[in-house]
């Protein structure tokens, strides 16, 4: 197998990220406008916390991470149960790996790179909403293995995305009932 290359997220990666994200997570999961916003939220103090994995110049994985203080808390954030202050928490928006490269450590490497840069940005922890319906519940297993601890379970987490953006869940269709596990990794 050719060597996988890791790079900080750049606009030149957007089309590959959109294609992979919509293929893995369902139609309308991510679009160019959203990705531009995510890119802006990833950078703080000239440090980018989002990363992509490339194989022969093709995006085969990505980790979108928002810097602490750049993202909006919502009803899916149980801040009173977090071990650190909300403004010290980065947000792990999305981790996606092409099925041909799963199980090879790509997701863990992307997370490790994001944590390294989030710490440089000043974050003390990172939070994610983990898709509990991922194939084989791999998202939960991977995030737990990387140190993630469950804060709270949120049924129907992604249903509002259908209503606002037309997101179609690959498991449930138009009426997503998938549970999102609010999970946190504290940095040392």
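Sequence proposed for the structure above (188 residues):
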């Amino acid at each position: 197998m050719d060597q996988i290359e890791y790079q900080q997220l750049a606009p030149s990666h957007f089309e590959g990220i959109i294609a992979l994200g919509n293929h893995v997570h369902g139609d309308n999961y991510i679009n160019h406008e959203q990705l531009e916003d995510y890119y802006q939220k990833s950078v703080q103090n000239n440090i980018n916390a989002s990363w992509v994995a490339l194989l022969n110049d093709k995006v085969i994985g990505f980790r979108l991470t928002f810097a602490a203080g750049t993202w909006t808390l919502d009803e899916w954030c149980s801040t009173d149960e977090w071990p650190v202050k909300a403004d010290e928490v980065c947000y792990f928006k999305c981790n996606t790996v092409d099925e041909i490269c799963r199980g090879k450590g790509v997701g863990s490497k992307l997370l490790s790179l994001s944590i390294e840069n989030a710490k440089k940005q000043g974050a003390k922890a990172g939070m994610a909403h983990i898709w509990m319906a991922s194939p084989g519940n791999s998202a939960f297993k991977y995030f737990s293995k990387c140190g993630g601890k469950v804060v709270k379970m949120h049924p129907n987490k992604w249903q509002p995305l259908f209503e606002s953006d037309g997101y179609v869940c690959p498991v449930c269709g138009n009426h997503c009932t998938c549970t999102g596990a609010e999970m946190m990794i504290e940095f040392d």
